[in-house]
Every structure is written in structure tokens, then in C-alpha cells.
């Protein structure tokens, strides 16, 4: 049977904390470089929170706006007092985040095995295309599927229904691959298979009674299990 893998992008293929080095540089002038990891964490957490809240409100915006608003929040919360130029530069850095070291080789293995691979993201198509291209992995994907096409955010069931509609594959052969538990639970709730990429051994899975079909520590492990 034909199998399709839909890879989440931010946090699964692309390291959202790849911005830490730039944050350290920007914070070093105020002798606050040690705050960079915490700033990155808060930025990412708020980015997701804002997408959830906008989804509940029915107030969709481009994911980049959630990212910018989360940056503004982290700056206020940690009193880092970044200038507008600093914030613009950090947003530009976010568009050039690196891929995780395991991404390229694992994706190549799936491609060579004839598995349909798509990038499936809260980010806009243009943003994801650019991000994957600069990371050197865009050519490993058959397509990019963005939530902007339905103007909802994960884990809204409409987003996963849209994924199913875009793929010429039976739902039972469609897998969501994500490091984000909320995404895995959303996909399983919508009737898809899902693999959780547990990139941190300290990361717990949400105790909702909905479990991933498989858990792997990296994308190499996913390839070993699925190929």
C-alpha cells in the first residue's frame, strides 16, 4: 500500500531553539546572555499559545504574526528591552532556523523508499518553503501543506481533515510525524496514525488517554521502524 508521512516542521524538522545563539549575541550588550535559553523557551511557548487562543476565538492570522506577538511578550516579560531593529533581526533569524542533524538523511531514506513525504505546518506555505529550502531539505518533500489553506491552526480537526483531502492516500496509511504532543493527539483524535518524535528524554506526553502509535527519539529511529 502507498504510505504518506506528514512531517510537522517547527520543532520536528526545524530546531526552533536555533535562535539561541542570536539571542545570546543580542543580550550580551546588557550582560544578559545567560537569559537566551529562557527567552527562546518563552517565545516558543507563547507562539503556540497564541495560535491556540486565536483558533478558539476564530481569529486566524498568519503564523508569523503569532511569532511576532510572542516575541513582543517575551521581551516584556523578561524586560530585555529589545529595539525594533533587534526584533526585526530576530524575526529574520527565525526564518533561517536550522534543521535538526537527523532530518536530511532520514528524509532521503524515505524518499528513496518511495514514501510520499509532505511538510505539514501551522506556518504559511511561503514561510515553510523558504525555511526548508535554506535548511537544504525542501527537495525531499513531495509537497508543502499549510493550515493557511483552511485558516485554522493545529490541533483543529479541520486541519487534519484538510491533510487527508490533500493526500491521495487512505487515512489508515497516513501518518503525522511530530515532536509536539498536542499535534500527535490532534492527529490521532482525527483518525490518523501518529508518531511522536521525543526529542528530549525529559519531555512528558500529555495524559489524555490518547497515545501515539509509536514513539521514537529521532527521525533515524522513525525510518528504522517504518521502512
Describe this entry's structure for a reader.
With 227 residues, the chain is α/β, with parallel strands linked by helices. 46% of the residues lie in helices and 12% in strands. The chain has a 6-stranded parallel sheet with strand order 3-2-1-4-5-6, sandwiched between helices. The longest helix has 22 residues, at 36-57. It is globular. The relative contact order is 0.16.
Q: In what range is the share of β-strand residues? A: 5-15%
Overall structural class, as computed from helix and strand content, comes to alpha/beta
**Sequence stretches where pLDDT stays below 50 over 5 or more residues:** none
Mean pLDDT: 95
- Outline type: globular
* Number of helical stretches of at least 4 residues: 9
Q: What share of the residues lie within helices? A: 40-55%
Task: Compute the separation of the termini in Å.
Answer: 13 Å
Number of E strands: 6
Topology order in helix (H) and strand (E) letters: EHHHHHEHEHEHEEH
Q: Radius of gyration over alpha carbons?
A: 17 Å
Largest sheet: 6 strands, parallel
Give the spatial strand order of the biggest sheet. 3-2-1-4-5-6
